[in-house]
């Protein structure tokens, strides 16, 4: 599973930045499946790669990718593999790209 490799890389970055208690936002572009399936697998592998990490502090944001409508040839952006064309409603063809991850660490608020 490629989510395991992504999780190890994210866990390494969190460790290097000393951000185990911070809010982490992952921006995901691309992919081949449903975003929910990717998120669940990534969270599982993150919890294994970085024991003690609060996976609830991980926010995953999926960015849209380009799709082509096979019916009307309109290019549009979508997040899910079955996102419909906004012009005619047909399911768009995904431009298959592997996940690209951008990581943003938001420091935890100071405790009083």
Largest sheet: 3 strands, mixed
- Return the CATH architecture: 2-Layer Sandwich
Number of domains: 1
Number of strands: 6
Question: What percent of residues adopt helix (DSSP H or I)?
Answer: 25-40%
Uncertain runs: none
Mean pLDDT: 87
Structural class: alpha+beta
Name of the CATH first level: Alpha Beta
Q: Describe the strand arrangement of the main beta sheet, using strand numbers.
A: 2-1-6
Rg, rounded, reads 17 Å
Gap between N and C termini:
42 Å
Query: What is the CATH T-level topology?
Result: hypothetical protein PF0899 fold
What is the H/E string? HEHEEEEE
Shape: elongated
Strand residue content: 25-35%
If helices are DSSP runs of H or I spanning 4 or more residues, what is the number of helices?
A: 2
Descriptive overview:
- Helices cover 27% and strands 27% of the residues.
- The chain has a single domain, classed as hypothetical protein PF0899 fold (2-Layer Sandwich).
- The longest helix has 15 residues, at 2-16.
- It has helices at 2-16, 35-49, and strands at 23-29, 58-63, 65-68, 75-78, 93-94, 100-106.
- The protein has a 3-stranded mixed β-sheet, covered by helices on one side. It has a 3-stranded antiparallel β-sheet with strand order 4-3-5, with no helix packed on it.
- The mean pLDDT is 87.
- The chain has 2 helices and 6 strands, in the order αβαβββββ.
- The termini are far apart.
- Helix 1 (2-16) crosses helix 2.
- The chain is α+β, with helices and mostly antiparallel strands.
């Amino acid at each position: 599973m490629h989510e395991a490799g992504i999780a190890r890389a994210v866990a390494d970055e969190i460790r290097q930045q000393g951000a185990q208690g911070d809010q982490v936002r992952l921006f995901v572009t691309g992919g081949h499946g449903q975003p929910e399936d990717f998120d669940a697998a990534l969270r599982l592998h993150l919890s294994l790669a970085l024991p003690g990490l609060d996976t609830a502090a991980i926010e995953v944001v999926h960015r849209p990718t380009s799709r082509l409508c096979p019916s009307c040839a309109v290019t549009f952006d979508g997040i899910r593999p079955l996102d419909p064309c906004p012009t005619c409603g047909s399911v768009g063809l995904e431009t298959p790209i592997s996940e690209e991850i951008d990581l943003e660490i938001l420091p935890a608020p100071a405790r009083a």
